[in-house]
Fold:
Amino acid sequence: MVTDITEEPIKPESSIKSKGDNGPHVLMRGKQNLAGHVVVGHGERVELASLNEDQCRAHDIIEERLKVHMTSKSYITNDETRLTKVDGQAEQLRMLILGQGGAGKSTVIRAITETFRYYDKLDILAKCAMTGVAAVDIGACTLHSWAALPNSLPKDDNWLDRSLKGSTEKRHANMQGKEFLIVDEVSMEDKATAYCLSEIIGKSRAQEGKGKPHEPFGSMHIIQTGDFHQFPLVGNLTRALYMDRPDKDDKRALLGREIFLQFDNVVILDKQNRIKDKTWSDIMSRARVGKCNANNLYKIEKLVLTNPECNIPDFSKALWDQAILITPRHSVRNLWNEHALAKHCMKTGNRRYIVPAEDTSQDGSEHLSMEAKLAIAGLEDKATGKLPATVQMAIGMKAMVLVNLAMEADIANGTRGEIQDIILDEREELLASDEDGAIQLKYPPAMLLFKPDKKTKLVFPGLPPGVIPLTPSLAPFTVLGRTGKRFKVSRYQYTMTAGYAFTDYKSQSQTIEYVIIDIGRPPTGSLSPFSVYVALSRSRGRETIRLLRDFNPNLFQNHPSEALRSDMRRLERLNKVTRREWLMRG
Structure:
């Protein structure tokens, strides 16, 4: 059995009813939540009961629009019990829920999901995220998969009409009947993506006879969440939604910016829930906007392991011995992982395996020619479907998945966990270790038993709870030999790496209990305030964070983007307007 890394069409999320649930008209007295709201319904709405005032405002605005939608789409039943729809539509909601990491945006999304389930309306709610690991956290899929977004920017106005049949069918299957869409990690959405998404949804809804031609997204209610002070989309920063470039952007970027400006309901969450250290929370609030003062910098510098004033932890003792390294340097990440894996094997006595990719010809022959092998050896992972030539692994190894492998099992790009067992390929012969104690395999293992750090919804017969069986992924690619001959190759390999260290980019959307962070000046290129803020906000405070080396203080004293600073002023004004209008409604 081989896992294909291509994502399957998303099946509509089914409504879930508790035993004895006959519909939302049966109310029970509930508890008051933190904002004083009474939580009612058949069974307690647990997430709603935990929301603070700002989170409640975000949730309640959406719940109110859902109620309007439900009442404006009433139904008449005739004698033959057929349903006839009465025309009517709630005013489109275009909403942003913003806040720094740890402010509880995911909690709000879970509460919204809970409310749609309460009203038996999960079938009209779609949830997506810009990354796989963020999608897993909210029980969603990636936006690119759900909307079958094009891989490159369309170059003409007829791009949507020329979509592949498979893409069109996938969009229809995913969007049919949906009225509300939540998109998480909005900082990684660019202007062209906003335009494309609006066009795709608009066309899909027009085919259902829905939407108004002058409204974006075919009048679907859109809720976007995230933090614009975290990583923007990889590439040119000018593509970010907050970049206003009327004289420089192309047509699609301009339209995407105009669509973004139409999001007029804004809720900014400012209460920190992840960081328990108030001093550190204040420092992070200042760091994200480049306003750290001398006292803030002094407290940050005391976390540097080479600083004489640093309280250096005992890394051999519990908790700190599980610390993760976050670094922007791929070479440092690789060396750290190799050393940590070797240390793990020495401590546990478990074997360390060097796992080669299995490359075969797509013409049916098992073996590749020497010309093909030499050509493959010179390829980077990007050219081989992101499947590396070799990986290292061991039982008990901390691991990170590198692609959206099995979203239905909550295994996405960035998922962390532990390898519980390794089942070798039946073709493997006598195993012998090298001078470093590693065993060189001839084939990828037949199966890995992987336990994600976060609980998974799936249960596999015969396996302990939370354990997921993984098999090698398959990626086809073409390589050009020295004689000009093209070789079509199929590669089988695991999309996994040791998870003792990973890049700052991979750390986004993660909470890491104990962490060592490398924000030192890299030998080439430079760090941005975006990357520094993301890395330092992953843990809970100064007691659980240490810095690997010294850093450039300018990273904490300059705003990451003047365009962002300007647009956040606009969004903060909208936040005040949204709050005032909501309070006036009583």
Summary: Residues 1-43, 74-88 have pLDDT under 50 and may be disordered.
